[in-house]
Design a protein that fits this description.
643 residues; alpha+beta; Serine Threonine Protein Phosphatase 5, Tetratricopeptide repeat; Immunoglobulin-like; 4 domains; five-stranded antiparallel β-sheet; 11 helices; 26% helix; elongated
């Protein structure tokens, strides 16, 4: 921040000098000129109050002193005094018949910063009619004009917005920011900046740590420090929690194992607590600034902000995909970046909607919050500004949205804050919402011992055959939690070394719009001769042995399982209910078993490892007196016949 202020000051000084050289010849009294020179020296030494006071005296001596008004405007602009800046530049234009074009731009910029968007647009219209602006000034003026036009429209067309401060249990008199939520929305994790002692000059030192708050019946509980090893004596921040709460990605700077100035780290949460954070290494981090990570719901795509070369602007949003070898792939720059700066990305659990801040697209001023969605081809579309009053002429960033998609959280320094920065929540208006996401949770166990198993869970959309999400159950207790887009039909495939795989099918759907979740306790059988598995996601057309398209995902999982267990021999068994003749059911069951058998042969599974048999209606596993029971009896399964 100090560096940014210094840069702003020197740019302001250079701008003033540039205007000074273009100043028309003006007769100035000796007393006024002497006072101006003193004020200019004050300005160069950043003695702003003294400079402004002296300039007022110079203007008293000579009310038409153009240079004095210009310097007054530059100092006021640097101090963020927009009204004073506007008044001074308006006086310059009144006194200077043919001013340098940059005066108009500086006036328009001050009007824009003050939220006077129509005035800013009118000033820019005058500027853009002038000749010989130069490519840089013309480009800046066109960009600011688009911003002013959008901002004016946005104010006249506000979006619903009613932010609610999260209260004293979360927010403090200092800075609380960068919120993130667990999938069940019961835990809020955020970054807090606190005073920690003083330097030798008596100035307070600050330290950034992670805090968390649990949801209670009365609201958010009192936030607690997350402690070591996540928090250290140094600063940590800008965190993202995985949907199952097991991984946390965050930013840390100037550490001994760092690759660049700031790097992205990851910590794993076990039954014994958080493990030691690890640097994600040179495959992902660069020698530049890498920060503000956000992890996708399936844990395989990490979005982050970087100042590395190869982007479109100074800071861009990049992404890296985790390979099946557990290595992060080469980062790629996102297509939706502007030529400005992008910050604070958040990928929603729907995997299709990403929120971020940008100063490179038309907006209200500074950084605005945008959303961008993936289209049907999986490509990112055009960013959409979230509108006013979510965005204002101040900086806005750091927005996240809950899995249901109806509630957003962000950080603001608005007037009613408890501290310097507070965390707020608000209902997100309909057009800015992502797709609603539900979740499945439960436990994977050994069928006999009932002890938790470390396993891989894959959730497949039956209509698209796409693996929507992948999760690992906990190594110690076998628990899992996985985010899934709502209103879809899913196949769940669960695998663990030394066990037969398990399949389920289910629908996540809500008729009322409430949160959708499913609890599944999954028992796996050890690979032993005689053990069998019902293939619940193999489907046939009614009364036929032709495999339906939705069966492909499960069949491919069976192929993979047999490839990984190359000594295994299985029998494919077909079963029916008791509707129709026993003879017809026997033939149908044999043909259905043979269809699966043929699919496996076509996918390079050896003939001597496979057999098939039709059992017709002779081995029911449920009653044939109900439709649900008959559906359970119509099944395909495999049985281990050799190891």
């Amino acid at each position: 921040m100090i560096f940014k202020k210094l840069v702003s000051f020197f740019l302001s000084l250079l701008a003033f000098v540039g205007v000074l050289f273009a100043q028309p010849t003006q007769k100035v009294s000796g007393k006024a000129k002497k006072l101006f020179d003193i004020a200019l020296e004050n300005y160069r030494h950043k003695e702003f109050s003294e400079a402004l006071s002296t300039l007022e005296k110079a203007i008293e001596k000579q009310p038409d002193y153009i240079e004095a008004y210009i310097l007054k405007a530059e100092i006021s602009s640097y101090q963020g005094l927009n009204i004073a800046t506007i008044e001074s530049y308006e006086k310059v234009l009144e006194l200077w018949p043919n001013p340098k074009p940059s005066i108009y731009y500086s006036l328009a910029n001050a009007e824009f910063k003050e939220g006077l968007y129509d005035d800013s647009k009118a000033t820019l219209d005058i500027l853009l009619q002038k000749d010989n602006l130069g490519p840089s000034l013309e480009e800046d003026a066109i960009k600011l004009s688009k911003n002013a036009e959008f901002a004016s429209w946005a104010i006249k067309n506000p979006v619903p917005f009613n932010p609610e401060n999260l209260g004293l249990n979360v927010n403090t008199p200092e800075e609380d920011y960068h919120p993130c939520l667990t999938l069940d929305e019961n835990t809020l994790i955020f970054t807090r900046k606190e005073k920690e002692g003083f330097d030798r000059y008596g100035n307070p030192n600050y330290k950034e740590d992670f805090y968390y708050s649990r949801k209670t019946n009365e609201g958010w509980g009192l936030a607690e420090n997350m402690g070591p090893p996540l928090n250290t004596k140094s600063n940590e921040g800008a965190q993202s929690i995985s949907m199952d709460g097991r991984y946390m990605y965050f930013t840390a700077c100037h550490r001994p194992d760092g690759v660049g100035s700031c790097d992205i780290y990851r910590a794993y949460n076990t039954a014994d607590g958080w493990g030691e954070p690890e640097n994600l290494g040179k495959a992902l981090n660069s020698q530049k600034w890498d920060s503000q990570p956000t992890i996708s719901a399936d844990g395989r795509t990490l979005f982050f902000v970087s100042s590395r070369a190869g982007g479109k602007g100074q800071k861009d949003i990049w992404y890296s995909v985790l390979g099946f070898d557990s290595e992060w792939g080469k980062p790629q720059v996102c297509s939706f970046n502007s030529e400005g700066n992008e910050l604070s990305p958040f990928i929603h659990p729907d995997g299709q909607t990403l929120y971020f801040a940008s100063d490179g697209y038309p907006g209200m001023g500074g950084f605005d919050i945008f959303l961008v969605r993936k289209n049907e081809d999986g490509e990112w579309g055009t960013p959409i500004n979230l509108g006013y009053p979510i965005n204002t002429y101040n900086d806005e960033h750091g927005l996240i949205v809950n899995p249901k998609g109806n509630k957003a959280y962000f950080t603001s320094d608005r007037e009613e804050t408890i501290g310097k920065l507070d965390i707020y929540a608000f209902e997100l208006y309909e057009d800015a919402r992502p797709n609603a996401v539900g979740y499945a949770e439960g436990m994977v166990r050994d069928m006999v011992t009932k002890k938790g198993l470390h396993s891989t869970l894959e959730m497949v959309d039956l209509s698209t055959e796409e693996v929507v999400a992948t999760a690992l159950s906990d190594e110690k207790d076998g628990t899992y939690k996985i985010a899934l887009p709502s209103n879809r039909n899913y196949a769940a495939n669960v695998t663990s070394a030394g066990y037969l795989f398990h399949s389920e099918n289910f629908t996540l759907k809500s008729e009322t719009g409430e949160e959708v979740y499913l609890t599944m306790v999954i028992d796996l059988q050890k690979i032993e001769i005689g053990k069998s598995v019902v293939l619940k996601n193999i489907f046939f057309e009614t009364g036929s042995f032709k495999l339906a398209g939705e069966s492909k995902a499960e069949l491919n999982k069976l192929v993979t399982f047999l490839q990984q267990n190359s000594d295994l021999k299985i029998e494919i068994g077909g079963h029916t209910d008791n509707v129709g003749s026993a003879k017809d059911n026997q033939i149908l069951s044999e043909n259905r078993a043979k269809s699966v058998y043929n699919y496996l042969l076509k996918n390079q599974i050896e003939l001597n490892r496979l057999s098939f048999k039709g059992y017709g209606q002779n081995k029911p596993i449920d009653t044939n007196d109900t439709e649900k029971g008959r559906a359970n009896n119509r099944r395909t399964e495999f049985r281990v016949v050799g190891i």
